[in-house]
């Protein structure tokens, strides 16, 4: 990755995220480790960090140079400065005890706090406003991401007139992007592992002029060219990623949209309930 003067002004964690697509496997392993636990570089020397991330010390050296730092100490100083801002992203550590059989919800609480320290109520409110003003709302997801797109669909369907989850079986995204307009709002879920076509797909959607909200885990490089990009922390000491923060963000978007819909939204909910009773389906 070539670091430009503007790149050199970026915070440490943002440099790591932006570098991930261009890294060799061992460097990517280190980068993904630091995305989850960025505070570790501020706390340990290069050899200790290499041991924690299970890579070589040479990999650590190559990695920091790829980020545009002259040496490890320069990268460490920047990370230490960021940690002093109080960001919860720098407070997580991988060296806790092994996950118990019944760990409670401490992990979920930590991921929620770290995620929502980056996502403001005003940002969520702005997403809700665009959803309500949109000609059509598109919810996009592949693999596990489609589960969250479908969940949000069922919630928004109660207050929005035109919502669609894509792609469905046998469909291509080109078929849908071709009919998106600037009056639309698109929410794309991009949880790892993301499909290989994610970046060009985002570019194509953005080119339509539609408002675009990108929801990812913490490993995704930030897309500042999109209307919104929300990072949800999915760190875990278990075999599967912890998606509590993703579900919570979906819930907050739904709540904000319902509240902003006001009387008209409540009337829509009432009509739905009346029809359900009339049809006797539930």
Low-confidence stretches: 1-5, 96-100
User: How are strands sequenced across the largest beta sheet?
Assistant: 2-1-3-4-5
Q: What is the number of helices? A: 13
User: Roughly how much helix do the residues carry, as a percent range?
Assistant: 40-55%
Morphology: elongated
Mean pLDDT: 86
Largest sheet: 5 strands, parallel
Can you characterise this structure?
Strands 2-1-3-4-5 form a five-stranded parallel β-sheet, with helices on both faces. It has helices at about 5-10, 10-20, 25-35, 40-45, 45-55, 55-65, 70-85, 105-115, 120-135, 145-155, 175, 200-205, 245-280; strands at about 135-140, 165, 185-190, 210-215, 230. Residues about 1-5 and about 95-100 have low confidence and may be disordered. It is an alpha/beta fold and about 280 residues long.
